[in-house]
Known about the structure:
Structural class: alpha/beta
Oligomer: single chain
Distance between the termini: 14 Å
CATH architecture: 3-Layer(aba) Sandwich
Number of helices: 8
Amino acid sequence: MEKPMIGIIPLYDKNRESYWMLPGYMKGIEEAGGIGVMLPLIVKKDIIKQIAKSFDGFLFTGGQDVSPKLYNEKTSQKCEELCIERDEMEIALLNEVIKLDKPVLGICRGIQMLNSVLGGTLYQDLPSEYPSTVSHRMKAPYDRTAHHVTIEKISLLYEILLVEKIGVNSCHHQAIKKLASSLNVAAMSEDNLIESVYMPDKKFVLAVQWHPEFSYIKDKNSKKILKAFVQASENQD
């Protein structure tokens, strides 16, 4: 059987005008049985449609803040670097792959983008808008537990992990505020922030606020998430 091809959203360095990739995204997919391919940043509709049809699954990576324009809010002074090129591509690609019911895994920015594209909103800056004693922006190394999340028993995430509580790493200052109506909560943090979501009417659309690409080498739950995503991408019939 051929291994599934996973399209991975590139990271973008504005200062160097370069696309780049963290090895954990590629190696994590490879270890899970897939072939990770970094996509170009492009918004032409015909090319987006071709990309959506050509790959078996799509990994929406971490990165810059999602533009508040996407969820109809003014940009806060606490909002950090934006990447309009990524916003435009991910909006178009997410809509297309969801329509095609292709498997999607969102990580960090990926969960925020998924929620925003589907009609939800975000906290633009947790420290100022949602103060908490829970560590959501840990310092490296990122293969450690920063806090715990509680998993909803009726959720795609629970079907994968079969546990109700896990430790996760954490490196973000934005998070879901209002949940999009087409998403269900899969996990919550200790301070009641949404940490994972899924689309119940799709084959596999799952997103997490933490970073399995940093922790999969040591953490069995991160491995299981990546493995489940790749396995869902194998079965396109």
